[in-house]
Amino acid sequence: MDERYSRQTLFPSIGKDGQEKIRSKHVLMIGAGALGSGNAEILTRAGIGKLTIVDRDYVEASNLQRQQLYTEQDVEKKLPKAAAAASRLRMINSDVDIQAVITDATALKLEELVQGVDLIIDATDNFETRMAINDISQKYKIPWIFGACVGSFGMSLSIVPGKTPCLNCLLKKMPIQGMTCDTGGIIAPTVQMVISHQTAEALKMLVEDWDAVRSSFVSFDLWRNQYTSMKVSKAKDEGCLSCGINRTYPYLDSENMMKSTVLCGRDTVQIRPPMQQDLHLGDLSRQLTSLGYTVKGNPYLISVEMGEQRLVIFKDGRALIHGTKDLAQAKTIYHRLLG
Amino acid sequence: MNNILFFAHLRDAVGRDSVQLDASGKTVAELKQLISDKYEAVNLEHVMTAINEEFASNEEVIHDGDAVAFIPPVSGG
């Protein structure tokens, strides 16, 4: 511990005891995009015991403007974000046990991933996953920290089961996807501001300073100079299906989970097979090459050019179809190549 | 009178970050309807509402002088 964390332990609310606690904790990071990169870097530098970082995507050039863990080499190699993040994080702090999980964080997968976890950080880009995290958090009594941003607008909320309202108390139902993602773009300072709110809350929770945890929903617009903090204690709803008396955890029902999703703002459809696969990418790559397709790949995925569309296939059978927002067309392309 | 504040893309849809109107006696749901009728581009269905910086449900009644803020959940990350 010594010198490395001296400035952090000098901070009275952490101290040496707090540092010991930080060191003993396991954080689950859902998403390794902009919020995931920044949150993961700060918590890794802070000296947590273990970080599990989960992401379904790979690094692209358009990520580099704000996703602080990635480099041009990662783009060149089309590395999965979780893998690229993990290798960078290990260089930053070799004391932290970093686990990279390249998968889609479905409700089923989350049940597996949360075992032994002390805190979940939301670094996702969609409400389907957030609502699943929210239910998981209530079911296993693990706090989580919501964070989201678009353009110059960002927001965060700390959710502590049994103490605070949950995200479902506030939103009542799943917000419509894509209402804003296509329009606003994103500037890096917005991301950093959300990360600051999330990681400050994370440190409080990791040192178990529960009284210091923010009990309001914070939102801000860095370009329009608006900042608002909304008290939410009254929002706790005893009838809430996620955290109320007769809870059913509606977002953990995998029957309700979509198998294909239009990725917000990306002209891309994700197809997820009902059962996880274990594809032999080498064989598939050779097979597709012999059919006349241009195929590139690495140990984690292969990328297939198909005229206006490009298909990226992961080892677990999941595929991203770039160049379309049409679910049916995407499924056709998927089935054409993978049966 | 009431000061009604708009955040994120709602501000762009309305064209300004706040408007003054008399909403006293109305519920949050009624105010949302009134605003949606007035500004066609504004959809407040999934939007969170704060009255005087405190979370408010759709059933809550607005009083004279209350500041009402509409905060849309955004999904990026």
From TrEMBL, chain A:
Does Nucleotidyltransferase appear among the keywords? yes
Superkingdom:
Bacteria
GO molecular function annotation? nucleotidyltransferase activity
UniProt keywords, alphabetically: Nucleotidyltransferase, Transferase
Q: Does the keyword Transport apply?
A: no
SUPFAM superfamilies membership = Activating enzymes of the ubiquitin-like proteins
The THIF-type NAD/FAD binding fold domain, residue ranges: 5-240
Which NCBIfam families does its entry note?
PRK12475.1
Q: What is this protein called?
A: ThiF family adenylyltransferase
UniProtKB/TrEMBL annotation, chain B:
Q: Which UniProt keywords apply?
A: Nucleotide-binding
Pfam family name, one: ThiS
> Where does the signal sequence lie?
none
Q: Which Gene3D superfamilies match?
A: 3.10.20.30
To which protein family does this belong?
Belongs to the MoaD family.
Its protein name is: Molybdopterin synthase sulfur carrier subunit
